[in-house]
Amino acid sequence: MATPKIILLGGGQHAHVVLDCLLSQHADVIALFDTQYQGDLFGIPQRGEYDPEFEPTAFSVVAIGENATRKRVAAQTKHLFVNAIHSSVILSQHCKMGIGNMILHGAIIQAMASIGNHTIINTGTQVDHHCIIEDFVHLAPGVILCGNVRVGEGTLVGAGTTIIPGKKIGRWATIGAGAVVIDDIPDYAVAVGNPAKVIKYNTP
After folding, report:
1. pTM score, two decimals?
2. 16 is catalytic
């Protein structure tokens, strides 16, 4: 079976990591699309504005770190999506996963976890049993989700955050780096500290 061709939507710093992830596994990445960048990245051409007619049988990954932008670009993308999963990831055969996800170097996803679509499970993050990660979530490097945690759509969980078992993080919330979450966090809330406290709300 031929190796599928892959394109990336995005050319910024997060795309560098996703491209490195794919190339380390000898994936056939043929182009990146982002109007802000030109030239080559790791030998792969950056082609500017996305062309939905380019290599129509290729698969795609929206390699953009900012959650709302990733959601908007994904909605406009005509190519089918594929997951980018680094070879160092420990991924239970008993977890569930959608499409367009980026599971990066050294992440661990345990049994009965459920990962949605277009999420970023970043470097060294741990997702324990029965966690639910909804679409367009970004779990930054070193996050630890203990068992049975739910993270709502579009939420950013900052680097080094720990969330204790059974807690629910709402949609489009932001958890500051290094937080320790011991209570549920509402939709659109910004929470920081140890223990994490809500300091304001994002605009829906």
Report:
1. 0.96
2. no
